[in-house]
């Protein structure tokens, strides 16, 4: 490659790198603490978990919270999958805050026994200085 083309290529690479927006710093600590608190509440029973989910439900979607009944739901997040999701809009309405999504393994228990396991994703939102989410709505 000629020195002129190499210089132009380096200048273009520097320009592209300089124009890209800095990546958002993932709220890893908040997400880990959120899921740990959810799982601790689930281990204490359905009433404790329901209280946790009600307290941490995104306020814009408080009316859409579901009851788990006698079930508990534990989440094991794959933190390496945590990424921003600015286009998330449940029911067509984007939530206030900084939206993130993470891959999770979900374990559902009913009266102490495991009734289901699934791999999926869970959205969480940094709203002010806290993390809020969306309560799961099990069917059946």
Describe this structure in words.
With 140 residues, this protein is an alpha+beta fold. The protein is 32% helix and 33% strand. The chain has a four-stranded antiparallel beta sheet with strand order 1-2-3-4, with helices on one face. Helix 2 (28-44) runs antiparallel to helix 3 (46-56). The model is unreliable at 1-22 (pLDDT under 50).
Quick description:
This protein is of the alpha+beta class and 140 residues long. Helix content is 32%, strand content 33%.
Mean pLDDT, all residues: 84
Q: What is the C-alpha radius of gyration, as a whole number of Å?
A: 20 Å
Termini separation comes to 65 Å
Assign the structural class, choosing from mainly alpha, mainly beta, alpha/beta, alpha+beta, or little secondary structure: alpha+beta
The secondary-structure element order is: HHHEEEE
Beta percentage is: 25-35%
Q: How is the largest sheet built, in terms of strand order?
A: 1-2-3-4
Q: Characterize the largest beta sheet: strand count, sense, and whether it forms a barrel.
A: 4 strands, antiparallel
Helical run tally: 3
Residue share in helices? 25-40%
Low-confidence stretches: 1-22
Give the tally of β-strands. Answer: 4
Shape: globular
Please tag this protein with its features:
3 helices; disordered N terminus; 140 residues; globular; single chain; alpha+beta; four-stranded antiparallel β-sheet
Write the layout of secondary structure elements.
Blueprint: H1 3-19, H2 28-44, H3 46-56, E1 71-84, E2 98-110, E3 113-127, E4 130-133
Antiparallel strand pairs: 1-2, 2-3, 3-4
């Amino acid at each position: 490659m000629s020195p002129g083309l190499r210089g132009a290529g380096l200048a273009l690479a520097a320009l592209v790198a300089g124009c890209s927006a800095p990546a958002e710093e993932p709220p890893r600590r908040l997400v880990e603490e959120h899921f740990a608190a959810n799982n601790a509440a689930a281990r204490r029973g359905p009433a404790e978990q329901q209280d946790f989910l009600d307290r941490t439900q995104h306020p814009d979607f408080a009316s859409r919270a579901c009851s788990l009944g006698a079930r508990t739901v534990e989440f094991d997040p794959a933190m390496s999958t945590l990424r921003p999701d600015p286009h998330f809009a449940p029911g067509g309405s984007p939530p206030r805050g900084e939206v993130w999504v993470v891959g999770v393994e979900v374990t559902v228990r009913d009266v102490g026994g495991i009734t289901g396991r699934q791999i999926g994703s869970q959205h969480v939102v940094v709203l002010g200085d806290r993390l809020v989410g969306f309560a799961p709505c099990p069917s059946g």
